[in-house]
Amino acid sequence: LLVNASEASARKIPDTLFGIFFEEINHAGAGGLWAELVNNRGFEAGGPNVPSNIDPWSIIGDESKVIVSTDRSSCFDRNKIAVQVQVLCDRTGANICPDGGVGIYNPGFWGMNIEQGKSYKLVLYVRSQESINVSVALTGSNGLQKLAAANIVAADVSSWTKVEILLEATGTDPNSRLELRSSKKGVIWFDQVSLMPTDTYKGHGFRKDLFGMLKDLKPAFIRFPGGCFVEGDWLRNAFRWKETIGQWEERPGHFGDVWNYWTDDGLGHFEFLQLAEDLDSLPVWVFNNGVSHHDQVDTSSILPFVQEILDGLEFARGDPTSTWGSIRAKMGHPEPFDLRYVAIGNEDCGKTKYRGNYLKFYTAIKDKYPDIKIISNCDGSTRPLDHPADLYDFHIYSSASSVFSNARHFDSAPRRGPKAFVSEYAVTGNDAGKGSLLAALGEAGFLIGVEKNSEAIEMASYAPLFVNDNDRRWNPDAIVFTSSQMYGTPSYWMQHFFKESNGATLLSSALQANTSNSLIASAITWRNSLDNNDYLRIKVVNFGTTAVIIKISLTGLGQNSLETLFGAVMTELTSNNVMDENSFREPNKVIPVKAQIEKVSDNMDVVLAPRSLNS
Ligand code: AHR
């Protein structure tokens, strides 16, 4: 491998090249990164008609003691469903309540993770014609072990009353539930029941451990809130940003019909922009352009949808005194968010209304926000786009060898005009399982191609990012979690090899002509702002099944000595079996392993293990 470190042969990699793509899929947000512990907190998930299903809420007590139903008596206009708990039993008399009382409980998203010493903020709305004495408890999954408890005692809750309680946990159970019980005959209504851990990232509502996994990738951007999630199977179920802002209690929530689950939209437009800011990443907003999987808005009726998006841009970037900017300011962020990229739709290029609708959005956005970069869904890598765009979207899901060989796809992509945004890439199918080493190697080869072609590519992100192990809608994913655990798949760890690449300098590097097609390599240098030193990173994927010895020859180092310029560390991602995966039992089976390189020279032999990513 010949690496020329001289400036003459070098080129800057875009600052934005590697980022992440967050989609509300696999309970990535609701029951994942968004730390809300109550599932279906407003009882809205069963639909707007009553009686409705309150799942996963369940009843404590049999029907001789308690009857639970829903009605439309909520004080919140956009989510009218409330739950009614009719307590038939009492402390005394003919129908005595069981110990602890009767009521309802919420198991969270496959169990709430309650941890000893931590505190949880409970907020709920309650109403009753009589005085109430409701006991609130966090208990283990069988309802026996009490981890925290409090009582709501009130003489007059004849109109809806907000109750806030801080619960301190005295025990730990990742499979806990929240119980609301009473032993007093009467009817009690509850609505908008929320339980949030108090130690979310900066208090912004993001689960800290999962947030940390994202931050560690140093993503330059975050694309959100999805791919198909944005489109919806039907437009009526698509993500509509206006329904996701303001006070959480007032948000209607919606059923994501592509991935088939309800979200309360606690993680809404504001929170996504906040997440981007907290990650030091640029937000990339994907919005619905009047096209879903099964229905489309005709271009002649698209203007209200265009206005909706202009309002969303004003919400993100407008002056705090503007109509929508003032709502953002009220939500605690008077400064505009740094929104510079939007994508008009997702995978919609083939749809009949796409181009017509696209142009309406494009023209209106450029008119008001000329600096915003607009991403088209149509692939411009093989032929020029027939419409204006700053970037074009490119998605690739395929076998490991196909993704690996697509490293060369962009060799012939246009160097002028719109640049590529590889906003979804992954090895899928049998090669990937639930996240194999083989998949990560195919993707690493592809990303080396992305780096080398970064004149034509501005951004790239893996998909999907998260999976709650209890609701696998898509395999594989980068980060797997439950209520209390998490691990990265090899594809997650593979991305760590690229986290210094944003804004780095790409050096000219070439493998000798007779080298196997199973090898691909790149070299970058960058200055570390912490120690002010220059670093050189050479990445090589050995996709083949045999070990390879390569000679790395460095030229053009100039005055710099190898010892100061070249960190003498080799990092390897490999395993005994190429189909090896990480798991909760073995989270570190396939992770990068570092070793000191004993003898550094500008002409050295390096052994590459079979099926390995090395740097
Ligand atoms: O990443 C999963 C899905 O794959 C995305 O929602 C969609 O854009 C693509 O088809």
What does this protein structure show overall?
Strands 1, 2, 27, 28, 29, 30, 31, 32, 33 and 34 form a ten-stranded mixed beta sheet that branches. Helix 4 (303-317) packs across helix 5 (323-330), helix 4 runs parallel beside helix 6 and helix 8 packs parallel to helix 9 (490-496). This protein has three domains: 2-12 and 505-614, Immunoglobulin-like, CATH 2.60.40.1180; 20-35 and 200-231 and 257-496, TIM Barrel (Alpha-Beta Barrel), CATH 3.20.20; 58-197, Sandwich (Jelly Rolls). The protein has ten helices and 34 strands. The chain is globular. The longest helix has 16 residues, at 437-452. By secondary structure, it is of the alpha+beta class. The structure holds alpha-L-arabinofuranose (AHR). Alpha-L-arabinofuranose is lined by residues 23, 25, 226-228, 346-347, 424, 463-464, 474.
Low-pLDDT runs = none
CATH third-tier fold name of the largest domain: TIM Barrel
Terminal-residue CA separation: 13 Å
Strand content: 25-35%
Main beta sheet strand tally, sense and closure: 10 strands, mixed
Q: Quick check: average pLDDT?
A: 96
Oligomeric organization of the protein chains: single chain
Helix content: 10-25%
CATH hierarchy, class of the largest domain: Alpha Beta
Separate helix tally: 10
Structural class: alpha+beta
For the secondary structure, the number of strands is 34
What small molecules does this complex bind? Answer: alpha-L-arabinofuranose
Question: How many domain units?
Answer: 3
Q: So what's the overall shape?
A: globular
Specify the CATH architecture of the largest domain: Alpha-Beta Barrel
